[in-house]
Amino acid sequence: MKQKFNKRLLIPVIFLTAALSIWALNLLGIADNIFKNTPANGAENGTADPASANADAASDSNSDSSYMNGWDAANTDASPVYCVGSVSKVYATAAVMQLVDAGKVELDSPVTKYLPNFRMADKRYKDITVRMLMDHTSGIMGTTLKGDFLLSGADTYRHDNLLEFLSIQRLKADPGAYASYCNDGFDLLELIVEEVTGMTYTDYIQENLALKTGGTDTCTGMTALKEKNLVPGFSAGNIHYENEAVMCLGAGGVYATALDLANFGSGFFAGNEAILSENSKNEMAVRSSSDEYRDDSGLGWDFVNMSQYEAAGVKFWGKGGDVMLNHAFLGVASEENISIAVLSNGGSSSYNGALAMEILNVILTDRGIEIKEAEQPEIKVTDEIPAEYNEYAGMYSSGDLGNGGAVVNIISFPDNKYMHVTTVTPFYADESDFMLTEDGTFVELAYKIENGNLSEARVAKNPVVLKFVKDENGKIYFAIDYQEKKVGIGTFTRKEYVGEKLEANPISDEVKSNWQAISGKDFMLYNDLASSRWYDAPKATVYTMDGVDGYLYYNMSGFPRLLKIVDSTTAVAFQSIPSSANRDLIDIKLVKNENGLMLTTSTGLNCIPADSIPVLTTDMKTVELKTMEASWYRIGDDMSEYDMVAERPENSAIYVYNKYGEEVYTTHMVDASEKIPLPKDGYIVFLGKTGDSINIR
After folding, report:
1. 676-677 and 622-624 as β-strands: parallel, antiparallel, unpaired?
2. How confident is the model over 553-573, as a mean pLDDT?
3. CA distance 289 to 142
C-alpha cells in the first residue's frame, strides 16, 4: 500500500524542511523497538536562505522523554544534542573544501605544505595529499587512540600531541594505493583548518558550516559538556555514565541535534551553495575506486553510489558514525533535495542508516520513484572444481566471512568437489562448506558436507558468496558479497575484500617460545588520561595459536587483530587487503624498563602485565597519583570481604573489575555509590594527576 506523509506535520509550506519524530515513524510503520530512543530528522527541498528555512521548520517532540534523565524535557522547543561520531568527517571535509573554494588549499598538494611539522617514521609520508586524507587512501595505519574518548571533561591532549603520535608511526601502504578507513586522516584535516584559518576548529565549523545551514546547537567535544540538552549516556546494561567528550574532533567529535545535522545535509543539495560550490560537492561525490569490492567512499562520505538508487536515477550519499554511546547517520539525496539524519544513544549507525533509507524510500515512492532491491540471481553450482583453484588453498587472515573480527580461515578443496573452510581463533573453531558456481564464485551451503556426500547439499538462505582474486604482485585475496535481511529494519549488505592468504613466516624455536610464555596472559592499560573511556575495557591479551606458526592473535578492548611475529619482542600488522577490512592496524612491542615489562602499541596505549600488579592490603591509607600512570592493585582474598570508601580530588577516577577484567564499578557512573565493591581476585585502578592523592579506608 502506498504511504503518504502528513504534509502539514512534516513539510512546512515555505522551504519544505521537516523534522520527523518517533510518532511519525510509527505512522509510517517502519519504527522498531530498537529505535524507541532514536529521534530522526529530515530536511527536504531547502534551497533558499538556510537560516529562514530552519526558522520555518516544523518539529514534533516525542512525548516520552523520561529516558533522557537530565535532558531539558520541560523546554518543549529543545532538542537533544548527540555526538554524531564519524559523520564529523563530512564536516571536516566540507571545512577544507571551503578552503579549496577560497583558493587557500589545493586538494592534491602534500599535507606537509599546510602542516610543515607533520612527520612519520616512513619516508612515504611526504607523498600524502590532502585528498588522500579525505578518501581514506593516505596509507596511515588508522586510529591513534590515546586521549580520544574522555568522560567528565574536555582535554586538548590529543589535539596537542597528534603530530607527535604520528611521528613514530609507519604507513601500512603506499599513499593512494587503496582506500581503508582512517580516523587519523580527518584529525589532520582539523589541524589544517586551524593552520590555514587561524581559528579554532570548533569556531570554524560553527561559523562556516552550522550557522550557514541554520544549525544553532552544533558544537564539538571541546564545548559539548556545557550543553544543557546533551543527551545522557547509558551503557548496554542501562548504567548511567557521565557524558562523553569525544576529542578526535575532525574524525568524530562534532555534536548536533538531528535537525541541525539534517539542515547541514541540505548544504549538499544541488543548486544550494550556502557552504560549498557545485564543483566541491561534485568532487566529494567521486567514488575512490571503480572496483566493486573496494570501498565506495567519496571524500568524507562512506558511500557515494548505491546500486538500487543509481538504478532509479537517484544520487544518494551517506555517512554513518559510532562512538561509545551515540550513533548517527546522515543521508543526502542531492538532486531530490532530501536530507535525513538519524541519531540514537543505542543500537548502531547501521541500524540508523537502514531506518534513514526506509524513510527515503517512502518519500521517493510518494514522488513516483520506486526503489527496488537487487534481485538475488539464480545460483547454479557444480561439484567439479578445476585444478587451477588449488592455489587458493591455505591459510587466510580475515574477518570471519562477513561478521567482522580477526580470524584465520583455513581453506581446502576436498577431492576438488567443494570448498571447506575452517575458521580458527584462540577461543573457538568453526566449519562451513561452499560450492563452486557457474560464474566462478563460491556460495555458502546451509549445512556442512558429511563424509563427502553432496547429494543433500543446498545453498544457505542468506549465503555468503566468496570470490578469489590474485593481484599483479601475486598476492591472493578473497572478497565476499553478503546480504542479511532484518525484519522491520532493512537489508544489510557487505561487499568487499576481507581475506588475504598468509605467507609462510618461519621463526626460531627461541622466538616462538618467548611469545608462548606470555600467550593468554593479561596486560592492563597504563598510560592514558584519568578520564579516558578506554579504562572501561582495559585488558589486552596476546595469544599464539597451534598450527599458525609465525603469527599471533592480539586483542584489546574487544578489537582483535592478527599480527606477524618479527622477533622475540615485536609483532606487526602485515595485511594489505585493499579495503576497510584493513582498517585500524596495530604494531606491538614488548619493552623492559625500570618499571618492568610493558606492552607498547602503535596506537599510543601501553599496558603492564596483570601478574606484576601488587596486592591491595588493609594497611594502605593513601594512593599517590601520577599523570598518565595508572596505579593498579589486585584484590586479594582478605580485601574481598570489605567495601572501600575513598576521598579523592577532582580530575581523578577509580575503576573496579572482576577477575575477568570486566568493569563492575567506576566513579564515572552518575550517582556512583560511595561504597566501592572489592570483588575477589579482581582489580582496582586509581587514576589522576601528579601531586594528587586518594585517601582510602
Report:
1. unpaired
2. 94
3. 19
